[in-house]
Specification:
Elements lengths: L1 E8 L7 H10 L4 E5 L10 H5 L5 E5 L7 E5 L3 E5 L11 E6 L4 E6 L13 H19 L5 E6 L12 H4 L7 H13 L3 E2 H5 L8 E2 L6 H4 L2 E2 L2 E5 L1 H4 L2 E6 L15 E6 L1
Parallel strand pairs: 1-2, 7-8
Antiparallel strand pairs: 1-14, 2-4, 3-4, 5-6, 6-7, 8-12, 9-12, 10-11, 13-14
C-alpha cells in the first residue's frame, strides 16, 4: 500500500478552508495533517473536505488557539492524544491507518520571543513540552509510526536563512535544537525530509512581517516529517510546496509532503 501524507500549519482551518480545499484538489494527498486549526472540532468544516473525498477525521480542538486534525481519504482510527507539560492545549492527536501505520500529529509550542525560561514562561513551556515528548518516547518506543507537524524548531544550519543571525532567535537556539534532537533520538525517529533532501537550504515557514516574503526568502524549516526506522526506508518523494505560501490569504507555513510505499 502506498500513501502520500502532507503536514501543514494552516493558521485557522475555518478562515483558510478555501486553500485547504485547493490543496486537496490539486495535490490530493491521502492524508493531510493540520496544525493551529484554531477551532473546536465540531466547527471544523469537514463537509467541505468530505465533498472532496476526505470523509475521515481525527482531531483535537479549542476555540481560537492551537488545535490539530488529521484529514484522510483512507479510514483512520483515533488511538490517543497527549497533553505534554499539562498545558491543557490541543497540540497532539494520533490516528492509525488500516495498514497499521500510526500517525502522530504535533503542534509544539512556539515559545514566545525571548529564549530565556526565567524571563519568558512560554519558552519554558516549550522546553518542558519537548522534554515530556522525549520521556514518552523513551517509555513507549514507537513502531511503524510517522510523526509530523509544526515542531517550531529549525534544527540544522541549512534549515534557516542565516544560522549566525538566528542563533539567539527562538526556533533555532542551541537549547531548543538539543531538546528536539533528544526527542528524535528517544523514538529513533528518522528525519524523512532530510533523508530525501540531504543538502541545501530548505524552508517551510516565512514570516508575515516580510513585505515580500518570496524575494526576501528569510525562511525556516519548522515543519517536519519523521518516521520510525522500520518504515523510514519506504519513504520517498519528499517536498515542500513553497507556492502555497503565496496563495490567497495564505498561512505563513507551506505544506510538507512525503510518500510511503508499504
Amino acid at each position: 500500500m502506498s500513501f502520500t501524507l502532507a503536514t501543514w500549519n494552516i493558521n485557522s482551518v475555518r478562515l483558510r478552508a478555501p486553500i485547504v480545499c485547493k490543496l486537496l484538489t490539486e495535490e490530493a494527498p491521502d492524508v493531510l495533517c493540520l496544525q493551529e486549526c484554531k477551532s473546536p472540532v465540531d466547527k471544523i468544516p469537514l463537509e467541505d473536505f468530505a465533498a472532496l473525498g476526505y470523509s475521515h477525521m481525527v482531531a483535537r480542538g479549542q476555540k481560537g488557539y492551537n488545535g490539530v486534525a488529521i484529514l484522510s481519504r483512507l479510514p483512520i482510527t483515533e488511538v490517543g492524544s497527549e497533553d505534554f507539560a499539562s498545558l491543557g492545549h490541543a497540540r497532539h492527536i494520533a490516528g492509525q491507518l488500516e495498514n497499521g501505520v500510526t500517525i502522530h500529529n504535533f503542534y509544539v509550542p512556539a515559545g514566545g520571543d525571548v529564549p530565556d525560561r526565567d524571563k519568558n514562561e512560554k519558552f519554558g513551556q516549550k522546553l518542558d513540552y519537548l522534554t515530556e515528548m522525549r520521556d514518552w518516547f523513551h517509555s513507549y518506543k514507537p513502531q511503524k509510526s510517522v510523526l509530523v507537524g509544526d515542531l517550531n524548531i529549525a534544527p540544522r544550519e541549512d534549515d534557516v536563512w542565516s544560522h549566525k543571525q538566528l542563533l539567539k532567535v527562538v526556533s533555532h537556539t542551541p537549547i531548543e535544537v538539543d531538546h528536539l534532537a533528544e526527542t528524535q533520538e528517544a523514538g529513533n525517529w528518522v528525519d524523512v525530509t532530510r533523508a530525501d533532501i540531504p543538502e541545501g537550504q530548505l524552508y517551510s515557514w516565512w514570516s508575515y512581517r516580510a513585505r515580500d516574503w518570496d524575494a526576501a526568502d528569510k525562511g525556516r524549516r519548522l515543519d517536519h516529517v519523521w518516521a520510525t526506522p522500520d518504515i523510514s526506508s519506504a519513504a520517498h518523494s519528499s517536498r515542500i510546496l513553497r507556492d502555497a505560501r503565496g496563495w490567497e490569504k495564505p498561512s505563513d507555513h507551506a505544506p510538507v509532503f512525503a510518500t510511503f510505499d508499504l
